[in-house]
Specification:
The chain is an alpha/beta fold. Helices cover 40% and strands 16% of the residues. The protein folds into two domains: 249 residues, Spore Coat Polysaccharide Biosynthesis Protein SpsA, Chain A (Alpha-Beta Complex), CATH 3.90.550; 63 residues. Pfam families: Glyco_transf_7C, Glycos_transf_2.
């Protein structure tokens, strides 16, 4: 019986996709038929189908080819994929991701704890191409990727606001479809991804927002972190002017679809946060005069007592609970997040992801040089100018 369906959209990405498909082989704890993989090809002309056909697979596999049309978009590809899914839960992966052998097992563990979840996980950004043989042998995972040089933007943001997403003001803003999962029944209820978004960005933020409005918990699972294969994009690289323009148009579309967003998160605040790289403060709760409680989990046997402490403190107003998890129990991080948006904020930090603030500051200063910031400012001005021109002709 298929429990989990993995949907992978692709376009002219055969080499990276082959690595992704190989990494999904022989997932721990699952016999053949326990999960399936569905590739939806949005009109590739690089012989993708024949190339991936040579990769042996240990799971049921579907391949669907779509002709590119004026209606082609990221949402449409994913909607075709999940509509073909036979599993109770649907995971979405991009075709440049490599997952560990415990990926599906970790995902199943989340849904066994609470079936009605939107689960997201982050990426480690690789700096060089990956050979298929290294994926097949598992050598790709012999390196420690929990280092500053491999982290993605959400890792850095979580250093500030914690890895406890439900306590945020806008947890839906952390939803990226490159590595996420939810029940198929919820996708059916929502009607899937919104297909009015064209080009790059916001279709995954949109579905995160709608799941949040339905009352679903949005949680982060560190056990599902994946490797993002290098193909000319790494942390700190600036988006192209075209991507920025498409993203800006899609933000406009989202605010048009959901007028209440203007009250929940004014668009100027969103633009300001991105322009100044202050997304994390935008998401954090802003309560004052709180009693700070610093707690640490150092031994597994202390977990029941610590849980009782956290539950009591978070149920009362006026506290800020900062938890450092040195054990990184398989269930503790999920337990904290399933407490939801508690009266007092809980900031949760697994020790292996926590870095010295000064070290982070130095690293970010190297990544975001003055030259890059100047280019970003220039592109921002071009974007504002094009937006002004569009508003003039839209009158």
């Amino acid at each position: 019986m298929i429990k989990i369906s993995v949907v992978i959209p692709t376009y002219n990405n055969k080499r990276l996709l082959n690595n992704t498909l190989e990494s999904l082989n022989d997932q721990l704890g699952f016999e053949s038929g326990g999960y399936e993989v569905i590739v939806v090809d949005e009109g590739s002309d690089d012989n993708t189908r024949n190339e991936i056909g040579e990769t042996p697979r240990t799971y049921p596999f579907q391949y669907h080819y779509l002709e590119r049309t004026e209606n082609s978009c990221r949402s449409r590809v994913r909607n075709i994929g999940w509509s073909k899914a036979r599993g109770e839960f649907v995971a979405f992966l991009d075709s440049d991701m490599i997952v560990g052998r415990s990926y599906i097992r970790e995902l199943e563990r989340c849904f066994e704890t609470q079936p009605d979840l939107l689960v997201v996980s982050y990426r480690f950004m690789l700096k060089e191409p990956v050979a298929l043989a290294d994926v097949r042998s598992g050598r790709i995972f012999e390196r420690n990727y929990r280092k500053l040089e491999y982290l993605e933007v959400r890792h850095f943001d979580s250093q500030l606001y914690s890895f406890n997403l439900p306590t945020l003001k806008h947890p839906w803003h952390c939803v990226y479809s490159c590595n996420m999962a939810l029940p198929k029944a919820r996708l059916e209820q929502l009607g899937g991804f919104e297909e009015s978004y064209k080009g790059w960005g916001m279709e995954d933020t949109d579905i995160g927002y709608r799941c949040y409005r339905l009352g679903m918990s949005i949680v982060y699972s560190p056990g599902m972190d994946a490797l993002h294969q290098y193909h000319g994009e790494a942390f700190g690289d600036l988006k192209s002017q075209n991507k920025m323009r498409e993203w800006d148009l899609n933000i406009k579309q989202m605010y048009k679809l959901y007028p209440q967003l203007r009250r929940e998160l004014p668009r100027w605040r969103l633009n300001y946060a991105y322009a100044t790289r202050r997304v994390a403060p935008m998401l954090m709760r802003r309560e004052r005069n709180r009693n700070v409680h610093r707690l640490a989990l150092r031994k597994e046997e202390d977990l029941p007592f610590l849980k009782a402490q956290i539950a009591e403190l978070s149920a009362q107003p006026g506290n800020l609970i900062i938890v450092r998890d040195e054990v990184e129990s398989l269930d503790f991080h999920l337990w904290v997040q399933l407490l939801g948006h508690t009266r007092s904020e809980i900031r949760y930090f697994p020790s292996s992801y926590v870095f010295d603030p000064q070290e982070i500051k130095r690293f970010l200063g190297q990544v975001f040089s003055w030259k890059k910031l100047g280019v970003l400012a220039y592109r921002g001005m071009l974007l504002v100018g094009s937006r002004f021109v569009r508003s003039f002709y839209d009158r």
